[in-house]
Amino acid sequence: MKYALLIYQGNTPLPGSAAWKDMSAAEQQGIYADYKAFNEIPGVEQGLPLGLPGKAKTVRVREGKPDIRPETYMAEGVAGYCVVEVEDEEAALSIASRIPAARLGGAVEVRPIETYW
What we know:
The chain contains three helices and six strands. It is α+β, with helices and mostly antiparallel strands. The protein has a single domain, classed as Alpha-Beta Plaits, CATH 3.30.70. The strands form two sheets. A four-stranded antiparallel beta sheet has the order 2-5-1-6, with helices on one face. The relative contact order is 0.32.
């Protein structure tokens, strides 16, 4: 079964931020290594690279007209996504827990890919 993993950064330190600069080089390299290892898990399909949330625009239609706002729909916005193909939900949850953002102040939403309409 396939699952979409939606990655929310939350307050995870991002490269270039003050929190990132406060980390040691070893901690920074460890995070990069963890993402690299995650990307090499069998069954993980990388999503396309997303721009930073500050560049997002949200479109809603109000009274028949587009209402375009220069912001993410949710306060923190989605930082990235991938698709995993695994045997069951438990395996998808286990893989999601390996994404560094899940332990560094963010979260990962695990959603089955299925047709429901």
